[in-house]
Design a protein that fits this description.
The protein is built from eleven helices and 23 strands. With 453 residues, it is α/β, with parallel strands linked by helices. The radius of gyration is 26 Å and the shape is globular. Bound molecules: thymidine-5'-diphosphate (TYD) and magnesium ion.
């Protein structure tokens, strides 16, 4: 028998090395090299190895591929992200932090797909636990099989028997291939199992839904390599203290990656949110200072979101700056612009910023709303609840145009806003038929004048 070989593999990016290294030359992480045993190549392939017939060259024009191969999942937010449904033979990876709701979403998917045999494999939960969860989700699917198994070969053997329409695996880090001696969750196991599953799904035409854990720093645990192997990479994000969850696609071989799905975690599982603006704007009866509404777009999806600021005299020598849901460095930059270009002495003030709903916003168009709420709190003058904002702020205090402005205006009007503030540099904005007053601002001074005078 050939002697088994060991290599050192970076658990962060998957780079291999013959000897141990303290710092990975590829991803620059420290102490990520672990020794892994590789089995001799001859014993590696599983029994269902590629059959020659299916992999012969074909003329592109002769290949029949139709959209019928897409199956609606029954969860419309998920369909939207997948580009209109699940494609047969695709490998979909769902990543997310522990507790965000990956298993819940996967089980809901299993319960929502009607008339399809489903093989739900869990390496983390027992059949009883899954059944309890299914009862909690108040769904039932008479064709859903549950399997507690971690051995890849067994999973594939059961799948060969059942011929399911979908395989769900919770999670890739718990399954292992007996041919490899390294433990489940190591880079070589994760990579090998994903590659085998990809091969299996391509040959059988069965879509496979994989769940993957992500590490503290937000990357898929170990397998950066996984992202290259699979067809679709979805990330499930959300703060455990809030009920909103956002499903994003970062890679999709069968659709666009600019879609976004929004869910609400409730008593009986995840509920789709069709009108996010409703959720992210708090209803106040009285007008309070320090609050303004931003018309943001995430991916292709417009929604309005409330920004809240509190500006008060600094208690300690060094003023505090704190921000939730918005980049603190960008907040500091905006404060510097306000100080330098509009003469507000914010350097001696504490500034606290909060984006409603525990949502993280990266859209630069939120700048204008942030500046407005900071100024409103600083001057203690409330901003009318009928105004919203969309604009980026430059270092010289100019208000810059932002993308998809018509979509933002339309969403604002739909939500009942009477006025929207945006950059005066927008050209050819087509707002025919939209009932809303558009206020163009060129510089922060103009904003201050139009808001507070
Ligand atoms: P889970 O799907 O187990 O997360 P993951 O697989 O990503 O680790 O869900 C975790 C949380 O969701 C858990 O803390 C409880 C909560 N939850 C609800 O609030 N309502 C529900 O109906 C279910 C099933 C879970
Ligand atoms: Mg789970």
């Amino acid at each position: 028998m050939a002697k088994s070989k060991t290599v050192f593999v970076c658990q962060n990016c998957g780079v291999e090395s013959a000897k141990w290294i303290g710092r990975c030359p590829s991803c620059k992480e420290w102490n990520t090299y672990h020794e892994e045993i590789i089995a001799p190549a001859s014993s590696k392939s599983l029994s269902f190895a590629t059959d020659r017939e299916k992999s012969k060259p074909e003329l592109l024009d002769n290949i029949k591929a139709d959209e019928k191969n897409r199956h609606k999942t029954g969860i419309s937010e998920l369909d939207r992200i997948l580009g209109g449904g699940m494609v047969g033979g695709s490998l979909i990876l769902l990543g997310g932090e522990p507790g965000v709701g990956k298993s819940t979403l996967a089980l809901q998917l299993a319960l929502a797909l009607k008339n399809t045999t489903i093989l739900y494999v869990s390496g983390e939960e027992s059949n009883e636990q899954i059944s309890l969860r299914a009862r909690r989700l108040k769904g039932s699917n008479p064709l859903c099989y549950v399997l507690s198994e971690t051995e890849l070969e067994n999973i594939l053997a059961y799948s060969e028997n059942l011929k399911p329409g979908l395989i769900i695996i919770d999670s890739i880090q718990t399954i292992s291939n007996g041919m490899l001696e390294s433990s489940a969750g190591s880079v070589s196991q994760v990579r090998e199992c994903a590659a085998q599953l990809l091969k299996y799904s391509k040959i059988s035409g069965i879509p496979v839904f994989l769940i993957g854990h992500i590490t503290k720093d937000g990357t898929l645990a170990g397998p950066k390599v996984l992202e290259h192997i699979v067809d679709v990479v979805l990330y499930f994000e959300g703060d455990n203290n809030y009920v909103y969850r956002i499903l994003r696609s970062v890679k999709n071989r069968y659709g666009s990656t600019s879609e976004l799905g929004i869910f609400e975690m409730g008593e009986s599982g995840l509920k789709e949110v069709n009108n996010p603006s409703d959720l992210f704007i708090n209803q106040h009866d009285e007008s309070l200072s320090g609050i303004s509404i931003a018309a943001t777009v995430d991916g292709l999806r417009p929604f309005l979101i409330e920004t809240q600021a509190l500006v008060s005299s600094a208690v300690y020598g060094t003023p505090q700056r704190s921000s939730t849901g918005f980049d603190i460095r960008r907040l500091n930059m905006l404060l510097a612009v306000l100080e330098k270009r509009a003469g507000f002495r914010l350097g001696i003030k504490d500034v606290f910023l909060n984006i409603a709903g525990g949502i993280k916003v990266n859209d630069p168009a939120i700048d204008l709303a942030i500046i407005s709420s900071v100024l409103s709190s600083n001057l203690d003058i409330p901003i009318s609840r009928e105004v919203c904002f969309a604009g980026e702020t430059g270092l010289s205090g100019e208000i810059r145009p932002v993308s998809r402005i018509e979509q933002r205006i339309r969403e604002a009007s739909k939500m009942g806003f009477k006025k929207i503030c945006l950059s005066k540099y927008h050209r050819n904005v087509d707002i025919k038929g939209i009932e809303i007053e558009v206020v163009h601002v060129g510089k922060i001074e103009h904003l201050v004048r139009s808001l507070f005078s």
